[in-house]
Amino acid sequence: METESRIPLNKSRFGQKWKVFVVTCALFGGILFLDNLIFSKLYFLFPNETEWDSSPWYNFIFKTKELQSTKDKHRTIITGSSVALYSVLPDRLNQKENPITKYHFFSHVAMAPTDLDYYKKDLLDSHPTLVVYLLNFADLQWEYQDLIDGKLKFNQKIWVTQFGERYPAKTIYPNSYLFDHWKELPRKTISKLAAKSLFYVSRFRVFFMDPIEVYIDNHFGSGRKYHLYQGEKPMEGIWSKGWTKESATILCSDKKPKESLFFQKTNTKLLFRFFKDSNSLDKPVFEIEKSFVRSGWNELDWSSLIQSNLEWNIVQIKVLSELSTAKEVKLIRYGRDESVGVRLSHFFCKTTNLENKSYSRDSYWDDTRLVTKTVSDFKEDYSERMIRDAGTRPELMRLHLVREAKKNVNTVPFEPWWELNRILSISDYFYQHKIPFVLVLSPENPIEFDIYKNSEWRKDWITNLKSHLEQRGQTLIDHTEVVSDVRYFFDPHHLTYEGADFYNSIFSKSLEPQILKFNP
C-alpha cells in the first residue's frame, strides 16, 4: 500500500533542521541574556561588605559600576596600580570642609599601563572631571625587558602570552584582548578568552563567592573568620589580623554579652582591668585574673568577669603568661620579630559596621611599627625583609626584577617601548575627550630610588613624557622624592598608612591648580 506524502522528503528534512537551528539559537540567546542579567547586573546589586583589598577584581568591577551610575559636582578619579592604592587616602581627603572635589579610586592591584589603556572608556564613562594617573617605575612591566647588547629589548611574544593569562585580561577585557592578539596567542589561551568573552559566569567565577561568604560571616558568623580587624582599636595599637600587643586597652562602645579571643598557646593567663572612663585609667573599678586552658578561639563572657552593677566602659586585657611572636602566628615572615598578645574577634567591643570598605584603608600596627623604629633599625629590618636573598624568594621575585631593571637603566639609552606608548595612548584619549589629565610619578623609597636617580635614562624618560603631555595642555608632576623618610615606606614603592597620610596633603595641594582651573 502506497502513502501519499504532501511534503517532499528533502523539504521535510530541511524544515526539521531549520526548527533545530531556531531552537538552538533561541536557547543560546536565552542563556546569554540570563548570564548578562544575573552575573553582570543582579549580582552587583548584592551588598558589598568586603574589606580593604580583600577581593580586588570583584571590588574593581563593583566600584566601576558604582561610579558609572553616580555623579559628583566635581569628581577627581585617581587611577593606577596598588602603588596608587597605597599612596593616597581619599577618605581623608574627602573629609575636608568645603571640598572643591570628590576623590575616588579607579584602581586595582598590578594595574599596568596596558590594563588602563583597555579601561580608558570605562574610566571615561565614570564621569571624571579630572583624571589623575599615579604611576611608578615598578608599573612598567620590567620582567618583559631584556638587556641585549647594551640595549633594552621588549619581549613582545612572551608578554602577549602571559598577559592573556592574567586576571585583568581573563576577567575584565577578554574580548578586547582576544580581538587584538588572537594571531599571536596559543590555542588554549584563545579558547579560554573566547569562553570568557561570551559568558560572565566564566569570567567572574574566580571571585563569585567572595561577597557572599563575607556577607554570611558578617551576619551569621561568630566573628572568628575575617580578613581585617574592624572592632574597637586598642590605645596601644593592633595588627590588621586582630592580634594585640602584650596589653590592649579598649573603649568598649558596644558591650555585647559575649566576645571571642584567640590564643596561640595553651594555658594563657590574662589580667582583665575595667575602668569607668579614659580619665580614670589609674583607678580600675575591678580587676581579675583568668586562665584559658585551650588554645585557639575561646568564648569570653563578660558576666563571668565583672558584676553587672559595676559601671565600666574601658577594658584592659594584659597577657601574664608567655607571649607568642608575630612570626609564630604568621603575621610576618622576615625582619625583626615582635611579641603579640591575643587575637580579638572581628567586631570586638563595637557595633558591626557593614558599610562598603573595599577602598577604605585603616591604620594598623603592621605599618605603624615601622615608623616607630630608628632609621638605622628600619634599614636593617628593611634589608632583611626586602633585599636579602630577593633573587631566590618567590614573593620578592618581581621586586628583585624591578631592582635589577633600575641598575640596567643606568647603562642604556632611553627608547620608547610598549608600556610607555600605552601611557601616551591614554593621554591622547583624554585629550580627545576634553578631560583634564594629570600624570603623577608616585613617591619612591629613597633606598631604592638612589639606584637610578641620576641616570640619563630617567632624565630622558621624564623629558619624553613631559613633552607629550604639555603639547596637549596636560600636566606631569614628579613626586618621586617628596617623601624622604624611609620609614614611611613598607617596601620600594608602597607607602605605609602613616606615609600615605603624610603624602595626602602634598598630593592634594599639587592638584589644586588643575582642580580650580576647571572648577571656578
Automatic annotation (TrEMBL):
Keywords: Membrane, Transmembrane, Transmembrane helix. The chain crosses the membrane at residues 20-46. This is DUF1574 domain-containing protein. The lineage of its organism: Bacteria, Pseudomonadati, Spirochaetota, Spirochaetia, Leptospirales. It comes from the Bacteria.
